Amino acid sequence: MAGLFALGAAAVAYRGILKQVAKTAEANRLSKDSNDHTRTANAETARKNSEDQWWSTLKWAYEEAKSFKTSAASTENLALVGILQNLGELEDISEFQRSSADRVIGIFIDSQDRRVRESAREASANVRAAISNSEARESYVKALDAVLVSFASSVGARIQGGGYLADIGMDWLLETSSSELIAVAWNYHRNPSPLAERELMSEYMEILKLGHRAGAQRAVAKLLVVTNRPLDIDKYVVPDTLRLSCIQWNEGDSSDVVVKALQQLMHR
C-alpha cells in the first residue's frame, strides 16, 4: 500500500513537470508590464524548475526501482515502468534525460514477472524511439528555420526565433515592412493523437485571442502552423477574427509551400 501512495505522489510530480512551463509562459503573456528581460528570465526559471523536477522524479523512480525489483509487487512495478516511460517520452527534454530514463527502465528488463518484463521492454523501445524522434525534430526545425529566414529576407521582414519564444508561446515571429506581426509555430509528431491535436488547436486559438483582448497596437494577430502531419483545422470552430492557417510540410518538401502560405496570410 505504501508503494501505491508513493507512486501516486510521483504521478502528481510528473503532472507538475508538464504544467510548470505552461504556467510561466501564460503569466508572461498576460503581464502587460513585463519587459523583454523579465520575460526571458521567467522563461529560463520555468525551464530550470521543470528540469529540476524531472530529475527529482527520476531519482525517486530509480530508488523505488531498486527496491521493487526484488519484491512481488507487480502492480507497483508496472505502474513505475509506466511513469518512467512517460518521463522518457516528454517533449522538450534532452537526449541525455531520455537515455537516463531508459537506463532505469532497464532494471526491470530481466524481471521474473513476465508482465513486468514485457512492459519494460516495450517502454524501453518507446523511449528509444523518442530519442530518434528528437533527432528528427531537431533536423525538421533547422530546415524550417532556413526557409523562414530566407523568406523574411526576400520580403524585407524581420524575424525572431528559431526556438521557443516564451512571451508569445510561439517559435518564430515575423515583423513585416508594415509592422504587422505574424507568428509561426511548428509541430512534429510521428503518431499524433486526436486529443493532442485538439489541445494544440485550443492553445493556438487562445494565444491569438489573448492578443486581440489585450488590444495592443502590435499584438500578434496572424498565425501559421506548420506540421509534418495533416491537421484539418476545418474540424475546429475558428472565429473569423482569428487569422489562423495550417499547412503540412516536411523536410525535403519545396519551400514554396511555406512561402505561399505566408504570402496568403500577409494579405488576409
Helix share, percent: 55-70%
- Strand neighbour order, sheet with most strands: 1-2-3-4-5
Secondary-structure class: alpha/beta
How many E-type strands? 5
Cα distance spanning the termini: 60 Å
The sequence of SSEs as H and E is HHHHHEEEHEEH
Beta percentage is 5-15%
Tell me the Rg in angstroms.
21 Å
User: Roughly what is the average pLDDT, rounded to an integer?
Assistant: 76
Pick out the low-confidence regions. Answer: 23-36, 212-217
Major β-sheet profile: 5 strands, mixed
SS summary, helix count: 7
Task: Show the helix and strand layout.
Blueprint: H1 2-30, H2 36-68, H3 74-89, H4 95-105, H5 114-155, E1 158-165, E2 170-175, E3 181-187, H6 194-214, E4 222-227, E5 243-248, H7 256-266
Parallel strand pairs: 3-4, 4-5
Antiparallel strand pairs: 1-2, 2-3
Helix pairs in contact: 1-2, 1-3, 2-3, 2-4, 3-4, 3-5, 4-5
